[in-house]
Amino acid sequence: MRARYLALAVLAGLLPIAARAQSTSVWTGVYTPAQAAAGEDVYFAGCARCHGDDLAGLERAPALAGGAFGQRWDGANLKKLFEKVEQMPPDDPAARLTPQKSADVLAFLLSANDVPSGTATLPPNKDALADITYTSQRPK
What number of other Cβ atoms are within 10 A of residue 22's Cβ? Predict the structure, then answer.
């Protein structure tokens, strides 16, 4: 009987860990069209000078759309990509974006990579973004 209670206690302790291990795919619609449009405005106001009007990258700035972007970020959670956006531009910390504008730019990048929109906005919260996984291919 004690072994059964011990087993139940162990399982009860592991269930929250297992629940956290599951993540949401970007392919479930994690941003809205309006958020992507707001992010597009921010992108063209500041990011395009380095990453290009076509998001293909310029000089040392990497592409933010297409195959190279997909390969680089495939399987990563959105927290990592969000943190990268927050660090831009690397040469001008005073020009960095607010968390909300970083989330908006991230929504625009998802849109530019043909990830479908949904009804919820992408939150400017790193813990929530850690639970969303980017994959370059739509799950089957």
Answer: 8
Question: Which letter does DSSP use for residue 63 in this model?
Answer: P
Q: Please, are residues 94 and 88 in contact by the beta-carbon 8 Å criterion? A: no
**Residue 72 contacts residue 126 (beta carbons within 8 Å):** no
**Assigned superfamily of 23-133:** Cytochrome c-like domain (1.10.760.10)
Spans of all domains in the chain: 23-133
Q: Give the predicted TM-score (pTM) of the model.
A: 0.84
pLDDT tens profile 15-24: 444 444 578 9
Distance of CA 38 to the CA centre of its chain: 16
Q: Is the peptide bond before 89 cis (omega within 30 degrees of 0)?
A: yes
